[in-house]
Each structure stands twice: as C-alpha cells, then as structure tokens.
Q: What sequence folds into this?
C-alpha cells in the first residue's frame, strides 16, 4: 500500500489533509500553545500494547501538555512510523485516535507515515486568550501546591507488568488511557499562579516550577493523594518513589494563592475531581519532602 | 544525561522552550500553514550521513512544504529520537539546524527527545495572508507546467551510493542539502494557479495536482531540466525514471496561466533561478508523458 492509500483509508477524517500544508486561521486576541511528544514502543508503552491504547496515549499526553497551560485543543499533526502495514492494527489505531480527538474537539490537520520501528510523534496546538496561559514561572511564596486525582498508579502498573504480575484494571487504565485534564486546566486559568502536568514524576516536574519561579517548596508524603492500590503497595514496601518519581501520571500539579483557595472547592464540585493540597511554595529554594527516608531516582530519558 | 541537560546544552537557542507548550500570536489577517515530516536513518538518508546533513535535511524538507504553499516560515518543533547521547553528534546536529533555521528566519519553539532508533520529526508552521495559499487544487486547463532547477540529481546520488560508486559533490549536495524554495514560493503567490514540492518524484507529485484539480497534463521528457550529470546518465541508460520518479528533488512544480507567463522571466531574473516549462495542463484527465518508453515505478513509502 502506498502512503496516500493508507491516509485515505485510515485518516481521511482529518481536516485540511491533502496539500503540502494544512491552513488555519486564528483570532488576533488569541494565542497559540503548541507542544510535541513522541511515544516509542518498549520505552513509553509495553511492546504488546494494543493499537487502540497506543493511539489514545499518543494524543492524550499531548492534550495533557495543553491542559497544563490552560489551552483549548485546536489541531494536531501525526507522524506515524510503522514497521509494516497491518490493516487490523491501523484500523484500531485510527478509530481510537478519532474517538479521543472528537471527545476533546481537536482536529487532525496533517501527518506523515514512514517505515521503521514503531513510533508516534504528535504535535498538538491549542488556543487561549492572550496573556492568560498558566506558566511554570508564575508560582509565588505562600502558594498552596495541589495535585489532581492520584499519583503512582501508572508506574505501579508498569512495574507489575515488567515483573510479570497482573496489574489492576484501574492502574492499567491510568497507564494506557490517562485522562487529559483539559477542563481542569481551563478552570485554573484565573485561579492558579503556575501549573505543570506530571509526566516524569512529581518530584522532577514540581522542580521545574520551582526552578522557573526561583522558589522552593515543602511537601509532605503523607499528604500525597493515592489510590487504595498504591497506598497498599507503599504500606508494604515503604517505596514512596512510586508516587514521587514513577512518572506517567498526567495529573496537573498547580499552585494557588491564599486569596483563590475558595475557588478550589467549586472546581472540585463542578468537575467532580479530586484536588489535594500536598504542600506550600517557600521563599527558600530547594524541594523539601517531609517523611521521605530515601531519595528517589527520577525518570531519565537516556 | 537527562533530557533537560540535553536541551539546555544543545537546543537552548530555541525560543519559548521551557514550559509545557510554546506560546505564539498570529495577526487576524494571516493564516497558518503547518506541515510535518519524519526522516528515518536508512530510509530517508544513508545511515552514515553526517549529523549536520541530517539536521539540515530534516528541517529543509519541511521548509520545502511551506515553500510549496507560498508561506513564510514562522516556527517549528523538533522530536528527536536517538539511540544514545553522542555529544559530538548532537553538537553537529544542533549547529547545523540552528544555521538553517537562522537562514530562513524560523524559530525552534519546542521539542521532545526520546531514546530509540535514530529518527527526526519536524513540524514546521508558516504564515501568509488569508486566501493567498498556493493549493494543489487550483490548476486550470491551458496552464503551463514549470519546474524549478533540475530533477534527478538526488536520486542519482542515492543510487550511486547504494552501488558503492562515488557520486559528484553537486548531486550529493542535492541529496543531503536540498535548498527549500521559500522565495520562489512567495514570488508565485499571485502568479501560479497551483504548486507542489517534488519529494516523491515529478510523476507522482504532479499527479496530486491533477487529481485535486480534476484535470490532466501532457509533459515531454525532452523538456525536463537536467544537470549535465543526470543528462549523461540518461543518455547512457535511457532511464528517464531517475528524473520522473527518483524523488527527493524538493523543487517546486507549479502551473501558470498564459496571462501570467511574463512574470516568470522577472522571477527567474530576480531570484537567479532556473524555471523550465515542461508541459501543459489539459482538460482530458491522466498524465501523458511524451517520449517515455517504459513506465516508471514510483517511490513507495511501504
């Protein structure tokens, strides 16, 4: 099959596909937010992951970056590298991608397919009013630090799979189908001082906020929001690092000034989401983790 | 080395890097043109290609897509997959990418680095006045079909390398360092009816214009613009397919109405570029290639 047949058969639901570039217009009071993420078989997902889960995650991790800025999804491009044409695989991939794109109202506007080891690069672009974006650099001393939902579930599932244990459906869902917190990001636009999505682990990602805001933080491991499964695992192993440095959470970590704390309750109620205060931004630089006995090794890309 | 160290060391010349997304503003009378292309070692370039040439080509092929729409380069993202951290390689890659980006005034605004088989995906975005873009669908019967510079040089170099022959410097330059025809694309904005960049070979790419314009064309192999080297190769082998279907030319193929033909002379002079008429758009569909004895096999992505 040639590339054009492949695109026609599996990706003709994209908009603007069929020229050298896709064309797009933007209102002048708006700003674009653009991000790119690559998923590689065996690195970012187990090699036997289904096509549906791979497609979902490849788009979801990019949506998560848009969420962390408070952007509304607008369009994305897909660069898909495949070892061969497997029609069954492509059908599953395309259907799943389309379903998620529809759910978050983001248009596929272009792509490239190449032959090689399985790899998916998505470049997602969102839009927001000018000067509203949630930046990593906006934290202020005294801000409360919050985390959405729970931490460590995806890392626990990944660890169990590698140890040939059977992970729970809930933790596998966290690993393969993380929910991009787009609505939460948008709700935080006038509430949070800073925000990041937790992809490499809380410790590393919170440290980016601290470095760019030139501040420190104190957090308490006992305050970390955990699922029963992860709580049980930590109770048995004392391995807090699964929640602090496991990565692949795709929850939002954000900081809120005292004057806006009352908004958190209404956001929790409106979005039916768990939001937990885990610590405070401090003038003194460095990240102090109370209750942690042993340092964690952060996820390293190389 | 972690990803953040790598970005800091080699890619800190990018703008807006250091948050979940890059932020960008666009005037409301403008339109974005976005495109994505992946290069894979051994598929799109010989595995022993230098880091400098790989970086150049990865950005140049995307600039070529912008050129084909008549867009002005604006920004790009880089997804770089590497088997390991080779500081010497990364330095060469980064320097070369930066030099080309500067020459075409395009900003690196974001990226992702991952571990895996060498692969580079660039998503480039350009800008132009609304409703001005050069589309594949705009050709009209009677238009003259033009090609910039010469065809077949890159394909000949690739073939010679595979046959362990030594290609000429000029043809290797065409293979590794194709010049994106950005200025030509912009000059054609009010002159050409349709345009495409020749990446998969003239026959296949011109067919996209014909399909999208619902028209046909008649071209003459004797009119194809060739370098001395390719002309000599064809004289010896009668292999016109090197120029018609070799691919990797990154020249612009465009169609011009009779009323605008006089503009071509001044563009040639202003840009000091070779522009050759190779045939005519016809009402009758299908691509008729005069002087071709044997059909060519087009480049297949899989």
A:
């Amino acid at each position: 099959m040639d590339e054009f047949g492949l695109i026609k058969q599996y990706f003709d639901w994209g908009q603007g596909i069929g020229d050298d570039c896709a064309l797009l217009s933007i209102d002048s009071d708006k700003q674009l937010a653009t991000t790119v993420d690559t998923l590689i078989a065996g690195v970012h997902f187990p090699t036997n992951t289904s096509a549906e889960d791979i497609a979902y995650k490849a788009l979801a991790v990019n949506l998560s970056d848009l969420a962390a800025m408070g952007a509304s999804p607008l369009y994305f491009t897909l660069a898909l590298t495949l070892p061969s044409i497997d029609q069954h695989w492509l059908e599953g991939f395309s259907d799943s991608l389309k379903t998620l794109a529809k759910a978050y109202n983001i248009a596929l506007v272009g792509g490239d397919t190449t032959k090689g080891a399985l790899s998916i690069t998505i470049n997602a672009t969102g839009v927001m009013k000018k000067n509203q974006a949630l930046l990593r650099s906006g934290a202020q001393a005294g801000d409360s630090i919050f985390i959405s939902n729970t931490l460590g579930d995806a890392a626990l599932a990944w660890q169990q799979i590698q140890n040939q244990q059977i992970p729970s459906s809930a933790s596998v869902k966290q690993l393969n189908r993380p929910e991009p917190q787009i609505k939460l990001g948008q709700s935080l636009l006038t509430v949070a001082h800073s925000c990041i999505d937790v992809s490499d682990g809380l410790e590393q990602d919170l440290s980016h906020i601290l470095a760019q805001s030139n501040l420190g933080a104190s957090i308490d491991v006992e305050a970390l929001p955990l699922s029963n499964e992860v709580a049980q695992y930590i109770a048995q192993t004392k391995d807090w690092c699964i929640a602090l440095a496991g990565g692949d959470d795709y929850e939002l970590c954000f900081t809120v000034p005292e004057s806006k704390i009352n908004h958190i309750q209404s956001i929790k109620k409106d979005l039916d989401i768990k939001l937990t205060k885990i610590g405070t931004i401090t003038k003194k630089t460095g990240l102090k983790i109370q209750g942690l006995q042993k340092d964690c090794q952060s996820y390293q890309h190389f």
